[in-house]
Amino acid sequence: MEKSLFERMGGTYHQEGDYFLPDLSVPELPAIGIWGQRRRRYLKEHRQALYTALLLSGKLNDHLSEVDEQAEAMFSQLVKQMAAQDSITEQFKADNQMEWVRQMNSARNRAEEVIYNKLIYA
Hints:
- It is a single chain.
- This protein is mainly alpha-helical.
- It is about 70% helix and about 5% strand.
- The protein has a two-stranded antiparallel sheet.
- α4 runs antiparallel to α6 (about 95-120).
- The protein starts with a helix and ends with a helix.
């Protein structure tokens, strides 16, 4: 007994009017945060071969998600360490709020530079 056309083509189909359309679904992609987006932009602009290889192998989103998670964890840890090292405390915040903001921004900027050098531009 010969297989029907749909059995030979594989997959599942649904009928809309006179046409049979394949049942397609888009896979769920992991959410990519700001660090992953920055990594994607860097790869696309400066490491095109690696970007293309990751994209064609289907590993790009996993790579970006992993970089994003690592960068976020590293950022939090570095900001806490730098704040402790520079004696930026809640008491200091209460005493001199503007200076606290300046020093915290400095710590955040330094932490960002470390992440760019170790994860984003690596």
